[in-house]
Amino acid sequence: MIGSPVAQLFEALTGWLAGMQGTSSILLALILGAMISFDMGGPVNKVAFLFGSAMIGEGNYGIMGPIAVAICIPPISMGLAAMINKRKFAPAEREAGKATFTMGLFGITEGAIPFAAQDPLRVIPSIMVGSMVGSVIAMMGNVGDKVAHGGPIVAVLGAVDNVVMFFVAVIVGAAVSVVMVSLLKKDITTVEPTASGDEITGNSAAELLASTAITNNGLADSEQAVHIEKLTDIVTMDLINLNLEGITQDAVVDEMIGALEKTGAVSSANDFKQAILDREKESSTGIGMNIAIPHGKSEAVLKPSVVFGIKRSGVDWKILDGSEAKLIFMIAVPRNSKENAHLKVLQMLSRKLMDDHFREALLAVTTKEEAYQLLDQVH
């Protein structure tokens, strides 16, 4: 009753976007930018993204170019705004902004979700306008993108036409969002009454944001909340495999899901694997530098967990920089989770894995104890 009308709506939207190609390119860019940033990885975002991906298959790279710009503006702009604006963001938010900015570099739009969830009426319009501006600049600058991914990483790896205009579009769009959110957001010292008559300070709101980003209350059969302060809160020794045997991506996925099933983290390996495969269909979770971070939300997941595996000889993960996946982190999150535990984990990993020495140290470990000690540094 629900799926069919929704599918028809999305098909109509896709057809509408396709029909606009020969009319106004600027109007199309405005619409695509707004759709990408509206729900940051949600259904509206996916319609625009898949439309751009389909155009790549037809040899039209000029649609994915503006989308690639819009994809990274929300996390980059919110990361910058949080880091530079002390009056609007508390220390906890400014610290989270560093990871959000890093996620933007990798084209992970969802990095801005915790900020949008905490203050949607001010944040969402700000990032939508910035993404729309960036998309228009990219369209006018003939920016093209040959891969179904976004963010500066695709430009650095040579998948973008007119790289200079790509970065101009990202910088201007992000600047617009930073200015808007800085003007719209209230100072953190503002006191607002709660529904119960109590008062919440700006600092308390910041703590709520941090709690939202790192807490998971989604266990179907338990009242217990899982607080994720660091990666080892959801990684056990049994979820570490230093010698993955699989020689294909599919075999490695099965092997890592098997570890989740043995530890009781998932109730159905097949159901969770489908969630992983569905995410891979959208775009590869190989982020570069021999790293892959497959992740999925599923009803089969009983508790948030992360499997860490090493494939020293590498496995093809369709990574943009052409490298093979050697360090693989599989994130499993319950579908009914009210929070975004996978975003917190992605934030932590994105920031730490930028460190060359940390990656080299992980590849050099010889025991699970050594690996666990290193993973304990991811927070």
UniProtKB/TrEMBL annotation:
Keywords: Cell membrane, Membrane, Phosphoprotein, Phosphotransferase system, Sugar transport, Transferase, Transmembrane, Transmembrane helix, Transport. Signal peptide: none annotated. It comes from the Bacteria. SUPFAM superfamilies: Phoshotransferase/anion transport protein (SSF55804). InterPro entries: Bacterial_PTS_Sugar_Transport, PTrfase/Anion_transptr, PTS_EIIA_type-2_dom, PTS_EIIC_2, PTS_IIA_fruc, PTS_IIC_fruc. The keyword Transmembrane helix applies. It is found in: Cell inner membrane. The keyword Transmembrane helix applies. Coiled coil: none annotated. Residues 233-378 form the PTS EIIA type-2 domain. The chain crosses the membrane at residues 12-36, 63-84, 123-141, 153-184. Its main location: membrane. PROSITE patterns: PTS_EIIA_TYPE_2 (PS51094), PTS_EIIA_TYPE_2_HIS (PS00372), PTS_EIIC_TYPE_2 (PS51104). Residues 1-183 form the PTS EIIC type-2 domain. Pfam families: PTS_EIIA_2. It is a multi-pass membrane protein. NCBIfam families: fruA, PTS_IIC_fructo. This is PTS system fructose-specific IIC component. It comes from Paenibacillus brasilensis. The lineage of its organism: Bacteria, Bacillati, Bacillota, Bacilli, Bacillales.
